[in-house]
Design goal:
Elements lengths: L32 H11 L4 H10 L7 H10 L4 H7 L1 H8 L1
Length: 95
């Protein structure tokens, strides 16, 4: 099984993505509120209230799962309070 990713599918040569080479295409969108909460809890287990606050702070912001994961990796040693304090930086990066 091979996974290929691109942000610019229309720029790929049609021969590269023809049937037989690419059997399934799936668009991965931005994180929804539930995904934001669940990923927060993966990095900061037991911090349910903080995850709710974090998800609320990101409402209306389109954030990819990759950007979200990178943010949590960058702030993994800051604990839930540190991640909450840095939410504005994530908002700015996403926008």
């Amino acid at each position: 099984m091979v996974f290929m990713t691109t942000n610019h599918i229309t720029k790929l040569d049609p021969a590269l993505v023809r049937p037989g080479r690419v059997d399934v295409m799936h668009a991965v969108g931005n994180a929804d509120e539930s995904q934001v909460r669940r990923m927060f809890l993966k990095f900061y287990p037991g911090e349910t209230e903080a995850s709710e606050n974090f998800a609320t702070a990101l409402k209306g912001v389109d954030v990819s799962m990759a950007l979200l994961q990178g943010f949590f990796l960058q702030h993994r040693d800051d604990g839930a309070p540190g991640a909450l304090r840095a939410t504005q930086m994530l908002r700015e990066e996403a926008e």
